[in-house]
Amino acid sequence: MRSAITSIGLAIGLAFAGLASAALPVPAPVAPPALEGGQQSANSAGSTSTAPTTAAATPPAAPESPLLAQNGAPVFDGDRAIGVPKPAGFDIQPQVTKNGDFAMWMHNVILFPVITAICVLVLGLLVWVVIRYRRAANPIPSKTSHNTTIEVLWTLLPVVALVLIAVPSIGLLQAQFKPAPSGAVTLKAIGNQWYWTYQYPDHGGFEVTANMLKEAKEVNPGERARTDADGPRLLATDNRIVLPVGVPIRLITTSNDVIHSWAMPAFWMKLDAIPGRLNETSFTIEKPGLYFGQCSELCGPRHPFMPIAVQAVPPAQFAAWVAAKGGTMPRAGQASNKVIPQTESDIADDTSNGTEGDGAPVENATIRVQPKVERATGNEPGLGNPGI
């Protein structure tokens, strides 16, 4: 009985104490002192456990100008998203290079008709044999073992079809690996797991790194999310490669880790990037616009998150972009005379593999260098790399 009365008294006392504390005025919160760079201390409202830094996060690029780093580069007003997959599309993308036009003509005029004719012929022969030589219509099978006319036809017709396909195919293959003429713009594409690094050896040697842009729900603080102006999902990059229209492009590919492949459907272009080797081809873009491609070699678990975005612009805008990136324009018609090593760092000593005992150069010598493995930080499966 005594313990019950004691408990009731304690409860009443605590209730009166709570009412008294509620009646007292609450002091206003004091703002924490500002740190260098305009940031507040970690105890401010809405702050996280992340340690404060002295540099504010880079603001995202404006949606109307999603190109490149914010360093004064010009805004391009050319046709947008020409080389891009179309919903429910099944045809080849519109081509903007001479090789692409020739390949499209070969596909539409030679390959497709020949394949269609062969399929129709074989299907017709099968249907005819099934109907004409079924047991009900032909109870006593023929014992004929040879037919000179048929044997001549089934030998000559495939030869004619192969020659019809081979002649333009060899011409297209030769045109794809034709050396670039003097005055071409050299672009070196370096494959990494899983992003691309680009260098412009003839324009001051500056470098651009291109990572896939994440979606808005996937970005981390300070990263720019993809917008519709950047391009389609899984194809938009934080930095686009800029190339001039009407000027030959000398493309050189290599890799820092595994085999990649630089593929751009609208250019009719697919060139492997192999560690320790340089592959080269050339093409000329005939129409300004925005073009998208991807790595087309199975290079690892994040292979489908390695896009390519190329902005093709008039030569004057390309020169302005080069100046904005800190590069220089070569003299008109000057041939490429820059040494292009097989890795990102210059090769210190190449005499052991590139010369014979008397110092004479060895033709087609290959400099073998252990590739430098470089990976972007913050890789998350299926999300894409943060901007670098």
- Gap from first CA to last CA: 75 Å
Work out the strand percent: 15-25%
* Overall residue-averaged pLDDT value: 73
Neighbour order of strands in the largest sheet: 3-2-1-5-8
Poorly predicted segments: 1-5, 14-74, 344-388
**Multimeric state of these chains?**
single chain
Order of helices and strands: HHHEEEEEEEEEEHH
The beta-strand count equals 10
What share of residues is helical? 25-40%
- Give the overall silhouette: elongated
Overview features:
10 strands, alpha+beta, 5-stranded mixed β-sheet, disordered C terminus, elongated, disordered N terminus
Would you write up a description of this structure?
The chain is α+β, with helices and mostly antiparallel strands and 388 residues long. 26% of the residues lie in helices and 15% in strands. The protein has 5 helices and 10 strands; from the N terminus they run H-H-H-E-E-E-E-E-E-E-E-E-E-H-H. It has helices at residues 2-23, 98-132, 148-176, 315-324, 351-354; strands at 185-192, 195-199, 207-210, 241-244, 248-255, 260-264, 269-273, 279-284, 289-295, 307-313. Strands 3-2-1-5-8 form a 5-stranded mixed beta sheet, with no helix packed on it. A hairpin with a 2-residue loop joins strand 1 and strand 2 (195-199). Helix 2 (98-132) runs antiparallel to helix 3. The protein is elongated and about 85 Å long. The protein starts with a helix and ends in a 34-residue tail after the last helix. Residues 1-5, 14-74 and 344-388 have low confidence and may be disordered.
